[in-house]
Each structure stands twice: as C-alpha cells, then as structure tokens.
Amino acid sequence: MYAQMVKSTGTLMSREDMSPQEAAFQDRVDAGDKIEPQDWMPEGYRKTLIRQIGQHAHSEIVGQLPEGNWITRAPTLERKQILIAKVQDEAGHGLYLYCAAETLGVSRDELTEDLLAGRMKYSSIFNYPTLTWADIGAVGWLVDGAAIMNQVPLQRTSYGPYARAMVRICKEESFHQRQGYSIMMKMVNGTPEQREMAQDALNRFWYPSLMMFGPSDKDSVHSAQSMAWKIKMNSNDELRQKFVDQTVPQAEYLGLTVPDPELRWNEEKGGYDFSEPDWDEFYQVLRGNGPCNAERIGARQKAWDDGAWVREGLMAHAEKHARRVAAE
Ligand code: 3HC
Fold first, then answer.
1. Which of 83, 103, 216, 307 could covalently link to 37 via disulfide, CB atoms 3.0 to 4.6 Å apart?
2. Which of ligand 1's atoms lies nearest the C-alpha of 222?
3. How many CB atoms lie within 10 A of CB 190?
4. How far apart are CA 269 and CA 263, in angstroms?
5. Residue 225 C-alpha to ligand 1 middle, in angstroms?
6. What is the pLDDT of residues 86-107, one digit of tens each?
7. How far apart are CA 301 and CA 248, in angstroms?
8. Digit-coded pLDDT (tens) for 223-278
9. How many CB atoms lie within 10 A of CB 249?
C-alpha cells in the first residue's frame, strides 16, 4: 500500500533506497502478513514497536492508580466488585503487553527502569485526578471508550504478538466502557447533585480524553513511519474524529452537555466539527507538569523499590538452581 518506507524516526525512505531485505519486509507488511519475533525486521521497526508497546504497557499499569483510589469508596458492594475486576484487568493488560515487548528483546525490568528515569512515557490521561465517584464513570465511559477506538484497529497491527494481545484486551475494554457508562446513567438519573457531579466529570475529562489520541496529524512525529509499517492503522486525527462522532450521541442520551461551544454536526463531512484540545497543556503534561505526574511516578517508584527483595530473591534462587544443575 505504501510506496515509501521509513528508515528511522522521521525519515521516509523511497523503495529505490531500500535494501532487498528491507523491500522484501515491506512487501510482507503490504500483503498483510504478520511479522513474528523470529522474523527479520528493520531495526527502526523493532524500536518503534518497543516504544509503542512499552508506552502502552506502562499506561495500563499507571492507569490502575486513579481508579484504585476509589475501590475503598465505591458506593455499593456490587460497584466495588466491578471496580476491583476492572483494575485487575488493567494489570493483566500491562502483563500481556510487557510480554509482547519482551519478544522484541527488551526485558520488563529495562522498560520499567526507562519509565522511572523519564526515558519512556505513559498516557497523558492518567495525570489527571479522579475527584468524585462520577469521575470513575467518566473514566470508564470516555477513557476506556477512547482506548477502544484506538485499540480495535491495533488487533490488525503487523506485529503478531501485539495484534494477538490486543484481541483479549479489546474484549475486556468493552466491559470497562460499559461499566463506566452504567455509572453515568445511574448518576444522571439520581439527585440534582449527582447529575451535577456527572456533568462536572464530563467537563473535566472531555479534552484530556481527546488528547489520548496524540498530537494533531501535522505534529505527529511517528505516524507516517508507523502507518507505513502498519504498527499504527489510523492517524491520530482520524481516530479522534471517530471518537467524537461516537461519543456525542452518548452524551446526549445521558442528557449531558459536551463542554465545547464549537461542537456542531457537519452534514458535508458526515461528522462533528469540534474544538481542538489545548495542545500547550498536553505538552506540559508530557513534560511532567500535569496535576498528578509526580504522584503517579512516585507510586511506580515505590512499587519498584518495595518489590526489590522479590526480584533479588528470584535471581538468587535462579543462580542457585543453575549452579546445582551445572554441578550435576
Ligand atoms: N500521552 C503521552 N504521550 C503521548 C500521547 C499521549 N496521549 N500521545 C502522543 N504521545 C507522545 C508519543 O509517545 C511521542 O513521544 P515519544 O517520541 O517520546 O514516544 C510524541 O507524543 C509524538 O506523538 P506521535 O503521534 O508521533 O506518537 P505515536 O505515533 O506513538 O502515537 C499513540 C501516539 C496514538 C498514543 C500511539 O502510540 C498508540 O496508538 N499507542 C497504543 C495505544 C496506547 O498506548 N494507549 C494508551 C492509552 S491508555 C490505555 O490503554 C489504558 C486503558 O485501560 C484505558
């Protein structure tokens, strides 16, 4: 499909410049073949996958924090059980994704060290606080809704282990989105104060959810490269538009107002016109200056430090076992 191929970040290479091995690889991608860990792949392809899958895995793990915060305060036993199940699912997603990244020759420990040292990112959305119970509804509805919009196409991504991990993740994200919407339904049909909490949660989570899809296409550094390699199947703006088109009628059904005075149905394009998020705020959050960045990284650092004795114990056991096997 793509006549061009990217050699390394930001540089597109024309077919004439490709080595026979690179051209054969691009042909496989264009034909829709799945690339498997034992297959030859360009170094840029491997690095891009490690960056994206690693960032995705970190997002799943950090994403447990804003919701875990509400487990002890969920309003009913049933809601508490559902929330615990959802948070556990996110831990599982992180694990599948770390495993997928490991097939590319990087360990989970290395990825965690890169995160803690600020060399890797996690999704901007998890740097916003969950202040009320309605925020848990908004996170499920909007954040998991945006995640599904981004991740359903990734089931067809060119790298086999990533595509297969996404199949199960998407099934579970669907349940997450529904549980969020169900909380919102309950809130909007409750007291006037509860309805107000639901509107306030939508007001605070709308633009951060739009930011989840990444910068606008003109500012996206990796999209051209990643789409040529079918690591990404759609551009950031395409998915953001689809998300808005899907979510606005859901907000209307709830009787809530999307906090965007420019929001209008555009008959000609068959989608909504809407205001872009504040990209300065987005880049501030990426630089570590969001409301909860320090708290989130602090929690990950603490978990890493608290788990040191387990890692050391496992290493000591593995070394002892290896020595015993060698002696025998
Ligand atoms: N948060 C943090 N960083 C972001 C970002 C966001 N929302 N959007 C973009 N960025 C970063 C990119 O990582 C890149 O920085 P880098 O070069 O240091 O890695 C830079 O901004 C430029 O953006 P690009 O558009 O060039 O980056 P990508 O091509 O990688 O596109 C993406 C960004 C759309 C997020 C893409 O990486 C992607 O589709 N990733 C897979 C899905 C994913 O990671 N989802 C996390 C969402 S949360 C989640 O899944 C948990 C669930 O339980 C809700």
1. 103
2. 26
3. 14
4. 14
5. 14
6. 999 999 999 999 999 999 999 9
7. 38
8. 998 999 999 999 999 999 999 999 999 999 999 999 999 999 999 999 999 999 99
9. 10
Residue 214 CA to ligand 1 centre (angstroms): 6
Residue 152 in 3-state DSSP?
A: coil
Q: Which atom of ligand 1 lies closest to the CA of 225?
A: 29
92, 257 Cβ separation under 8 angstroms: no
212 Cα to the center of ligand 1, angstroms: 7
List residues near ligand 1 (CB under 6 A). Answer: 51-52, 55-56, 59-60, 63, 90, 121, 123-124, 143-144, 147, 150, 211-215, 220-223, 226, 232, 236, 286
Q: Quick count: other Cβ atoms within 10 Å of Cβ 206?
A: 23
Closest CA to 300 of 141, 84, 112, 23: 112
Tell me if residue 198 falls in helix, strand or coil: helix
Write the residue with the smallest CA distance to atom 45 of ligand 1: 56
User: Angle, to 10 degrees, between the axis of helix 192-211 and the axis of helix 236-254?
Assistant: 170
Count of beta carbons in the 10 Å neighbourhood of residue 218: 8
Contact between 75 and 84 (Cβ < 8 Å): no
Task: Report CA-CA distances (Å) from 90 to 136, 140, 236.
Answer: 14, 12, 23
Maximum separation of any 2 CA atoms in the chain, in Å: 76
* CA–CA distance, 55 with 212 (Å, rounded to integer): 12
Interatomic CA distance for residues 312 and 236, integer angstroms: 41
CA–CA gap between residue 146 and residue 135 (Å, rounded): 15
